[in-house]
Specification:
about 210 residues; alpha/beta; 6-stranded parallel beta sheet; 4-stranded mixed beta sheet; 10 strands
């Protein structure tokens, strides 16, 4: 008689071997990868990676909020922060300009919903505001990724998005915007055509959804 196995919860940090396997695969796919201890280390490293005065757009992310990186970028005055500029503009008359600002910054910073051990990144979005920059519109892209987001393969990544991330994001959106979220757009980055353009800061700790 065999004992059924229980799938690893999507909240558990991946062990060192799995982080290293994901990092090696991402590197082979032309992403720059650094494995860091925690969000505090990523918060420090971001300051080295982004030149002062650069235009920077932060994708909506619990990882950025919880780590303090969102506040560092958007409130410090060190950068040309795109998000507060966009929020101050009139969406009824300046929507095109807002989208252009968000799509083509010098640097976009955010997170992902899953990273696979085969070396791809998966990001879901309701509005899609961060996806053009991630996909290639931004000169550089930086993702801070908690260890719980590492999964074996793409099918598991998609299951993580639907079964784990969506309910949590819907609850957050309901409080923040008065409506649930949805997977209206899905971006899968299998490789980076321009080596080193995309940087993944892979953490040993769990943070975010």
């Amino acid at each position: 008689m065999t004992t059924p196995t229980t799938a690893r919860p999507f909240t558990d940090p991946a062990p060192a071997q799995r982080l290293e396997r994901a990092a090696a695969a991402l590197t082979a796919n032309n992403f720059a990868v650094e494995i860091l201890d925690d969000a505090a280390a990523a918060r420090t490293r971001i300051k080295d990676l982004i030149p002062e005065g650069a235009s920077v757009f932060t994708g909506a992310s619990e990882t950025l909020r919880l780590s303090g990186i969102d506040e560092d970028i958007n409130s410090s005055g060190r950068y040309d922060a795109v998000r507060p500029r966009g929020l101050a503009m009139d969406r009824a008359t300046q929507l095109g300009e807002i989208w252009r600002l968000m799509s083509t910054p010098d640097v976009i910073v955010g997170s992902v919903h899953a990273v696979t051990e085969t070396g791809c990144l998966v990001i879901a979005s309701a509005s899609g505001s961060q996806l053009p920059g991630y996909a290639g519109g931004a000169v550089r892209a930086i993702w801070i990724v908690g260890a719980q987001k590492v999964v074996p393969d793409l099918s598991t990544a998609l299951r993580r998005v639907e079964d784990h991330c969506l309910p949590l994001e819907s609850a957050r959106a309901q409080v923040a915007y008065g409506q649930p979220s949805a997977i209206n757009r899905l971006l899968i980055l299998n490789a980076e055509p321009h080596p080193g353009r995309g940087t993944v800061l892979l953490l040993r700790e769990a943070i975010g959804f």
